[in-house]
Request: fold
Amino acid sequence: MARPTKIIAVVNPKGGCGKTTIATSLAAWLAYEHSVALVDMDLQQSASDWLQLRIADNPQVHQARSKPWPPEAAVDVEYLVIDAPAGINGQQLTRLLTFSDKFLVPLLPSPIDMRAGWRFLDELLKLRRDQRANCQIGLVANRVKTWTLIYRELTGFIGQFKAPFVTHLRESVNYIRAAEAGLGVAELPYYQCQRDWQEWEPLIAWVKA
Reply:
């Protein structure tokens, strides 16, 4: 199989930060204009469950195997979206970094998550330098309430790193509704999730750039 045009990994070693939600919604969004495959590297296999829920009326998102390395879809695709596992580190992180074109790193607005995020981003940026990898790293503030003090603290935290702040995604029940139906948030009615669509536009632009 030919190498995909772009390989985007959604990565954070801390569990529960929204990697699968972002990976599935990203794959669904891209599938309206491109051929897309989704790789589920997480032990919980939530992205694989999401794929099983999709119906034929929705643009197809192919499933790609994660083993043996590197991931490969059964058909040629333009985009490969990878839902990275919790706890990723060491050799597994290194090979994913050197394999991917872009890393999306979701960060939650909590002191615990920001401390864990600091350690991971510091390691990741050093690893990229040491490996001379060309992978672009983008940061996403996830499940936020933009009017809160902790969100302001999170944006200040993000600003300390030499990686772009791509967008923020609000805390919204629409993501739960979409996941339960095998959909991305952009596949819900516009009147229901207009704000979510608007928050996703800079993310899609960054992915495609």
Remarks:
- The chain has seven helices and eight strands.
- The chain has a mean pLDDT of 94.
